[in-house]
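Supplementary Text 2. Reproducibility record for the structural model of the 142-residue chain.

All settings were left at their defaults, and a single model was retained for analysis rather than an ensemble. We include the record here because the model underlies the residue-level annotations in Supplementary Table 4.
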Amino acid sequence: MTRQEHLLTIAIEECNELAQRLSKILRFGMDEIQPGQSLTNVERARYEYSDLAAVLEMIAPPTPSGGQIHPPLGSAMDAKRAKVEQFLQYSAECGTLSGLLGDPEGPRRPPRHVNPGYVSDEGDETEDDFPAPASAPPDHQE
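Retained model, structure tokens:
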């Protein structure tokens, strides 16, 4: 393996470590401290994120032409936050997310539509058969 391939492998591992810590937050809460540890799950997730960012910078270090993987830009992060909020609202309208439509438990009902482009195994259902909520995001990609 080359240095670059090793760094890419390490970045993949760091992504997995961050994903594992986020899973722990989901399962046990942000403020839980794992036995034998001194940091909360959210603090440990921040460290994992920092580890990933460090390796990403090693993969693409600064160059005169600007080839560096830069820290997240405020405007890019703002755009991502807005897109995630749009999908959270859409999920609530579909009945798969609680706590956004007034009731802390939120609606629990079957989805009222099929994702655009969906065709069942029988080929008889499309998105036209199920009207999407008014705020359905156009591309369904987060």
